From TrEMBL:
Family annotation (Pfam families): Adenine_glyco
Positions of Zn(2+) binding: C14, H27, H187, C191
Enzyme nomenclature, EC number: 3.2.2.20
Protein name, entry field: 3-methyl-adenine DNA glycosylase I, constitutive
Protein's GO biological process: base-excision repair
Entry's Gene Ontology molecular function annotations: DNA-3-methyladenine glycosylase activity; metal ion binding
InterPro entries: Adenine_glyco (IPR005019), DNA-3mA_glycosylase (IPR052891), DNA_glycosylase (IPR011257)
PANTHER family for the chain: DNA-3-METHYLADENINE GLYCOSYLASE 1, DNA-3-METHYLADENINE GLYCOSYLASE I
Entry keywords, A to Z: Glycosidase, Hydrolase, Metal-binding, Zinc
Gene source species: Cupriavidus metallidurans (strain ATCC 43123 / DSM 2839 / NBRC 102507 / CH34)
């Protein structure tokens, strides 16, 4: 018997992650899987703000440095940051040194504390804006996804957060948050992770 010497076929993925190992790992194990942890949601919201004008890969590779600089994105701790912390962060070359984005992260932690006075959790608040699956395109090809930069629910979320005083929370940023935290499954048709995310979403209990 002759053994096949052909190499195993690579898994099909969404085109945006390319072939870089760290990007593929993020795509395969994080992006699109539903999240109900307040710390992770707040971290992602902050990092999406820092990403503005940059690539997500840049932020992903600095994520551990951001966690160290921002007290692991613990809302109560970041909310207590002072001008001294702003200056400290502006001098930290391991993160993105942008005063407006740094101050926005601190501001948003303070806003999150206010929001939690009326909401059971940050997760419960964000998941109220989950799009109805019936409103989503039936076939998510790469071409369809390329043209999807926001949705009505992301616009509504952005408006509500801005009304509450949050910063760097535009509709496109909020849609990126929804994609990453599993409020929508935007893995394209043919991507092997799409089915994994669907299974995770079915088992997920939406926080109330």
């Amino acid at each position: 018997m002759t053994r096949s010497t052909s190499a195993p076929q690579p898994r099909e993925r969404c085109g945006w992650c390319g072939t870089l190992e760290d990007y593929c790992h993020y795509h395969d194990h994080e992006w699109g899987f539903p999240v109900d942890d307040d710390r992770r949601l707040f971290e992602k919201l902050c990092l999406e703000g820092f990403q503005s004008g940059l690539s997500w890969l840049t932020i992903l590779r600095k994520r551990e440095a951001f966690r160290s600089a921002f007290a692991n994105f613990e809302i109560n701790k970041v909310a207590r940051f002072t001008e001294h912390d702003v200056e400290r962060l502006l001098g930290d070359a391991s993160i993105v040194r942008h005063r407006g984005k740094i101050e926005a992260a601190i501001n948003n932690a303070q806003c999150a504390k206010e929001l939690l006075k009326t909401e059971s959790s940050l997760a419960a608040y964000f998941w109220k804006f989950e799009p109805d699956p019936k409103s989503r395109p039936k076939t998510l090809t790469a071409e369809v996804l390329q043209g999807m930069t926001t949705c009505p629910e992301a616009v509504a979320l952005s408006k509500d957060l801005k009304k509450r005083g949050w910063k760097f929370v535009g509709p496109t940023t909020m849609y990126a948050l929804m994609q990453a935290m599993g409020l929508v499954n935007d893995h394209r048709e043919g991507c092997w992770t799409r089915a994994e995310v669907q299974r995770a979403r079915k088992a997920f209990k939406v926080p109330k």
